[in-house]
Amino acid sequence: MACRSCSTGDGGVPKGCKNNGSCGTGGCSNKLEVFDWLSNMQPVNHTDQFKWVEVRFKNSRKDFYHNKSGLSLYTGDLIAVEGSPGHDIGTVSLTGELVKLQMKKTGFNHKTAEGRTVYRKARENDIQKWKEAIDKEDRFMMHCRKISRELGLEMKCSDVESQGDGSKATFYYTSEGRVDFRELIKVLAKDLKVRIEMRQIGFRQEAGRLGGIGVCGRELCCSTWMRDFRSVTTSAARYQQLSINPQKLAGQCGKLKCCLNYELDSYLDALSDFPNTQIKLKTKMGDASHQKTDIFKRIVFYTYDNTPGVIVPLDIPTIQKVLKMNKEGILPDDLGSLVEEQNKQKEIAPQKKEFANVLDEMNLSRFDNTNKNNKKKKKKRHGNFRNEKK
């Protein structure tokens, strides 16, 4: 099932990604989609296809359902599945053997879990009820916000998801603490005439459900591919030498950006053999304190406490040498002399051997010039030999 942007336009010309509805991922506007790279592979030894399917509902909510009746289901099919109570309408997002891998990734054991079943492919009246239920979601959300303000509840209703048969509505809300919403449920059930379910989510989950554009210019990671939300601390920013500015480090959810963890392992590996920057370097000119660090150039900048305007760059071996001297009670004259020594060592260090140019050896025309020279030499020899005879 494709999105609107890649449906046919004027004159039957495909729009969007030009696939004209044959998207391999079920549509380019869906969230947390997985490309089914096993779709063209037949089961081994003519075994039956795996009878579990992954079904996608509104936004990023997905679940696994058992296809007991063995319906012929494909990615993008609208199906009616078991609800609580009644039935729900969802879109098939994955079928076949790849569902096993997704179950293993999410920790779902289909052998022991009591999974819900697939009823049938969605009929026309099922789809009509489902669309009517979807059209009521915005009105339900605004009404919930109005009632929660009147009751003085410290919560924010961010999203509403209606069940496919219209018998139940799930309200997703965020709050700093616990909320007593018993009175809210009574009022909503009375006004909306549906079964009410309140579900609290975190601020990161809220951003993942609603989506958005990050400062990098791309869609939010939590709404496109990220499933698990790992904790992000300010120490990740400190290790990467970033300024602790909440306006720059915070994402759409108001929490620290998840991308701060992406390169953290690389920085930790690079900092593994760095000396402790809290220890001051003691010299005869005075103590020197850490100013800043260039991690990947492996240079640490120090300044004297009595002359903070003077910044001296030192490499890691030189710092370790000074710390060892300080432990033995020896004080170097100054850091500037140490810099001169490390520069001299770099000049004295043997240069790396240059590799031979093998491209010329593989050139097919490398023998052309030599053959011409050999012919000229032969002509001269023959000419000299004839003159001697004469």
Question: Key terms for this structure?
Answer:
single chain, alpha+beta, GMP Synthetase, Chain A, domain 3, 5-stranded mixed barrel, 4-stranded antiparallel beta sheet, 18% strand
Written overview of the protein:
With 390 residues, this protein is of the alpha+beta class. It folds into 4 domains: 31-122, no CATH class; 123-228, K homology (KH) domain (GMP Synthetase, Chain A, domain 3, 2-Layer Sandwich), CATH 3.30.300; 230-272, no CATH class; 281-348, no CATH class. Strand 9 and strand 10 form a beta hairpin. Helix 3 (137-150) crosses helix 4. The longest helix has 22 residues, at 368-389. It has 12 helices and 12 strands. The chain has helices at 98-106, 124-135, 137-150, 182-192, 203-210, 221-224, 234-239, 246-249, 264-270, 316-327, 335-348, 368-389; strands at 52-56, 62-66, 78-82, 87-94, 116-121, 156-162, 168-174, 195-200, 281-283, 286-294, 299-304, 311-315. The model is unreliable at 1-5, 16-22 and 24-28 (pLDDT under 50).
